[in-house]
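Re: [ENG-882] Designed sequences occasionally contain unexpected residues at chain ends

Forwarding the minimal case from QA. Structure tokens:
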């Protein structure tokens, strides 16, 4: 369903913009008709829809077999506030909601000498992030109706599904993560100037700066005892409308 939605967005934009993007005349703001877009406003607003793929990066205390992370595509939605610094630099705040699921698959080597069930080898980590990035957008010179850019910055999030304060741990089937991870982000995109709005596809990498693992009460827990740190890695593909 997510891929069908993405295809519909691409087809809509392609149909709407094919005649506009590839002509030499620049699309500009028409105050009389109230359409188009301008880069000269101090503040601009918009929204985005997109997809994500979240992973975990593990560091281990002992050299055991890696924990395999099975990823599932997730969904992003949010708002954009853009502050113009100058012709080439913008400051952006992009608060949004990101929903994802990761499945951790453990090797039996983690349970040597311990009686376990098959279900003990799998832990599902559901995450619902209120994601708040503060980004700097550095643009190239606009060419007709295209303008490429790079973007980077820092972000934090509130994980509504973290279970951080849950007194039960993996002995009761509860894998816990911290509620407020911190990240840095790097990406790139292209602004497409259309008659009625500016459309911007972006690809951005998200890299955790904080350990998100809440460890079990037992320091020798097979699920958390060998993990020195667990940090998020993610890729966002967003479609922005301004």
């Amino acid at each position: 369903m997510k891929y069908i939605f993405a295809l519909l967005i691409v087809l809509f934009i392609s149909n709407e913009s094919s005649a506009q993007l590839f002509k030499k005349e620049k699309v500009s703001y028409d105050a009389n008709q109230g359409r188009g877009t301008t880069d000269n406003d101090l503040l601009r607003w918009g929204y985005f829809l997109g997809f994500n793929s979240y992973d975990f990066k593990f560091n281990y205390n002992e050299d055991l077999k890696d924990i395999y992370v099975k990823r599932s595509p997730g969904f992003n939605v949010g708002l954009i506030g853009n502050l113009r610094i100058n012709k080439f630099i913008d400051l952006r705040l992009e608060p949004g909601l990101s929903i994802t699921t990761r499945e951790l698959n453990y090797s039996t080597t983690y349970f040597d000498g311990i009686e376990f069930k098959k279900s003990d080898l799998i832990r599902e980590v559901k995450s619902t992030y209120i994601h708040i990035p503060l980004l700097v957008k550095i643009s190239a010179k606009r060419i007709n109706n295209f303008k490429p850019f790079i973007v980077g910055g820092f972000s934090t999030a509130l994980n509504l599904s973290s279970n951080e304060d849950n007194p039960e741990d993996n002995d009761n089937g509860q894998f816990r993560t911290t509620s407020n991870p911190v990240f840095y982000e790097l990406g790139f995109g292209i602004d497409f100037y259309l008659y009625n709005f500016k459309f911007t596809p972006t690809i951005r990498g998200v890299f955790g700066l904080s350990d998100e693992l809440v460890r079990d009460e037992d320091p020798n827990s097979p699920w958390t005892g060998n993990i020195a740190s667990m940090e998020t890695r993610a890729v966002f593909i967003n479609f922005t409308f301004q």
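QA comment: On inspection the terminal residues look reasonable. Residues 2-21 form the longest helix (20 residues). Proposing we downgrade this to a documentation issue.
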